TrEMBL record, chain A:
The lineage of its organism: Bacteria, Bacillati, Bacillota, Bacilli, Bacillales. Keywords: Cell membrane, Membrane, Transmembrane, Transmembrane helix. Gene3D superfamilies: 1.10.287.3510. PANTHER family: ANTIPORTER SUBUNIT MNHC2-RELATED. This is Multisubunit sodium/proton antiporter, MrpC subunit. The keyword Cell membrane applies. GO terms for cellular component: plasma membrane. It is a multi-pass membrane protein. It comes from the Bacteria. Its main location: membrane. It holds the Pfam family Oxidored_q2. Belongs to the CPA3 antiporters (TC 2.A.63) subunit C family. It comes from Halobacillus alkaliphilus. InterPro entries: CPA3_antiporter_subunitC (IPR050601), NUOK/Mnh_C1-like (IPR039428).
């Protein structure tokens, strides 16, 4: 199971980076989203995947899930949610004011 | 007493929230922020003195014992850096009303400003790797808010690049933490450091170490990951540039310093030798960038990069002397970068342009700014008796003792070129025939801008002239860093 999840995370990273290297702004934003999903899946996998095991450690319990990765993912998801929404607004504003959403045309050397 | 550690994070956070609610009443917000930063500086100064006398204070949040709960570690290194960042922040908040427009002030400048301070202090104080990521995000979020403030065409274009590179490196940070967690099963820095020594396959740890270095090197702008830095740093308002230049890259360097002295010190031959080479390349490329342009803001922004190279060099050489050089240089560079960004902001404001070719003769109208700039250039380049000299002396002495001759030569040449790049601004911008004052309506404001800069520069000069006072505590920090067991014992209390 872990192997499949690791491969899936790898695929998410690859597609994310492919999108990140595109010229169109929206594709870049989607790329960052995919990468963060890959990262979250990866944390979950690293904490070992088990079915039917509660995240409790007490006497007599032999099979338990590590609760820490889940807490970490939750924090990380909230953060990436906030950043992605900010990025969407910023990308919209930038393309509107600069009149293009093509990164090639957004090089520029003029500064105010 | 251990609750004191949380104050440098909580106080700015509260202030930022209050400011968000009353953001439209500019005068009140401005006065309140100024009073508040001074109070905060005094509180942090008090804690700093307490730590100096009594040793590290450790807060276990929610009373969860060390490896399980989130901990905040206020040791001498952390508190020194928190105090220095608050010093820079105080100068910035007094400079802000003169530099920002009314709209910019009303649109949450002070909220984001306080959030940034809270994030930076948190990143310095935390003793937990995942928490470090969270505080990185806090300060980055605030910096995203600050960098788009003003909404100009070029500014938005540059800020999207800034946001993207930081977002990517943050995601990599999370992934790296996951890797480390799967190997050692904890994110508490002290416990990680303890368990790292017991791991059998050292190869995987070296891989993780390099991944961590990649993440922090992106934030700190080390060669070859510095390309994103100069342009986004000059596009926002000078106050914002000063905050970024003084604080953000230094958080990256602090993280490298902490993690590579505490946790990943098992394969020094590979990782730290890599640092030395990268440091040399960082210095060369940064200073060449600074010489390549006539935009005064860009010159200062490029000058961040060789400074990062110097600090990395100290970590790479990895002896007690060189680490104390890095710490000294870190404190020095935070203050002087704040000063320089504020100064070029003022110069560009009074001259009406940041193009060096269109300036000249400013010293006739603005003698104070001119001399401040001259002194700041000498401090940056490391002319004795200023603070840059002491830091570089320690670094180069550490390099010579370890017989890393090449990096010492590169360091010396770089210092000379830094001096050249700064003095070029002084000669071309300030000297020359007395001309008509470029923008007479800006004269009063321009002269007022010199006050906070002058005060901040005084601290920088003190740091150099009074090196005798500061050196013993810097040396003790360096001793403490070179012996990870001290940190582990103080956190885990065995």
């Amino acid at each position: 199971m872990e192997i499949i999840m690791a491969i899936l995370a790898g695929i998410l990273f690859t597609t994310g980076i492919y999108n990140l290297l595109q010229k169109q702004l929206l594709r870049i934003v989607i790329g960052t989203g995919l990468i963060s999903h890959g990262a979250h899946l990866f944390i979950l996998t690293m904490g070992e995947l088990k079915t039917g095991a509660p995240p409790i450690l007490s006497e007599g319990v032999e099979k338990y899930t590590d609760p820490l990765p889940q807490a970490l993912i939750l924090t990380s998801i909230v953060i990436s949610f906030g950043v992605t929404s900010l990025l969407l607004v910023l990308a919209y504003r930038t393309s509107k004011i600069n009149g293009t959403d093509n990164m090639e045309q957004m090089r520029g050397t003029d500064y105010e | 007493m251990s609750n004191l550690t949380a104050l440098p994070i909580i106080l700015p956070l509260i202030a930022g929230i209050i400011m968000a609610f009353i953001h439209k009443k500019t005068t009140i917000v401005r006065k309140f922020s100024q009073v508040f930063t001074v109070v905060n500086l005094l509180v942090v100064g008090g804690i700093f003195l307490y730590v100096l006398q009594n040793g590290a204070i450790i807060l276990e949040t929610g009373d969860w014992a060390a490896p399980y709960g989130i901990i905040l570690v206020g040791d001498l290194l952390s508190m020194t850096l928190v105090f220095t960042s608050n010093l820079v922040a105080t100068a910035c908040v007094f400079y802000a009303p003169k530099s920002l427009s009314k709209e910019q002030e009303a649109f949450y400048f002070y909220s984001f400003f306080f959030m940034l301070i809270a994030g930076v202090s948190g990143a310095f104080l935390t003793g937990d790797l995942f928490n470090l990521f969270v505080f990185f995000e806090v300060l980055l979020m605030a910096s995203y808010g600050l960098i788009v403030l003003g909404n100009g065409k070029a500014q938005l274009r540059e800020s999207i690049k800034y946001v993207l590179i930081n977002l990517f490196s943050s995601m990599l940070f999370v992934t790296t933490i996951a890797f480390l967690y799967s190997v050692v099963g904890t994110v508490n820095m002290a416990q990680v450091a303890e368990r790292v020594q017991e791991v059998e396959q050292q190869g995987i740890l070296t891989t993780i170490a390099i991944m961590f270095f990649f993440v922090f090197a992106t934030k700190a702008a080390v060669f070859p990951l510095y390309y994103w830095l100069p342009r986004p740093y000059i596009s926002p308002n000078p106050v914002v540039s000063a905050l970024f230049g003084a604080l953000l890259t230094k958080v990256g360097i602090y993280s490298i310093l902490r993690i590579f002295t505490l946790i990943f010190n098992q394969d020094v031959q590979l990782t730290h030798t890599l640092f030395i080479y990268l440091a040399a390349l960082t210095m060369i490329f940064g200073v060449v960038g600074a010489l390549s342009t006539n935009n005064i803001k860009l010159v200062v922004a490029y000058n961040i990069i060789p400074a990062v190279g110097f600090m990395l060099m100290g970590i790479g050489i990895f002896t007690e002397v060189s680490i104390s050089g890095t710490i000294y240089y870190l404190v020095h560079d935070m203050i002087i970068k704040g000063v320089l960004f504020l100064l070029v902001g003022a110069v560009a404001y009074v001259a009406g342009t940041s193009d060096l070719r269109k300036m000249g003769g400013l010293i006739h109208h603005y003698p104070v700014l001119g001399w401040l700039f001259f002194i700041a250039s000498l401090v940056l380049a490391g002319i004795p008796p200023f603070s840059g000299f002491i830091g570089k002396l320690l670094l180069l002495r550490g390099g010579l003792a370890e017989e890393e001759i090449l990096i010492v030569i590169v360091g010396l040449v770089t210092s000379l070129l830094i001096l050249f790049s700064m003095i070029r601004i002084f000669i071309r911008g300030f000297w020359g025939e007395k001309t008509e004052i470029p923008l007479p309506e800006r004269e009063h404001k321009g002269k007022m801008m010199a006050w906070p800069i002058g005060l901040l520069l005084t601290f920088s000069v003190l740091l150099g002239v009074g090196a005798e006072w500061f050196y013993p505590s810097i040396e003790s920090i360096s001793k403490y860093l070179m012996d990870p067991q001290l940190y582990i014992d103080s956190v885990l209390k065995e």
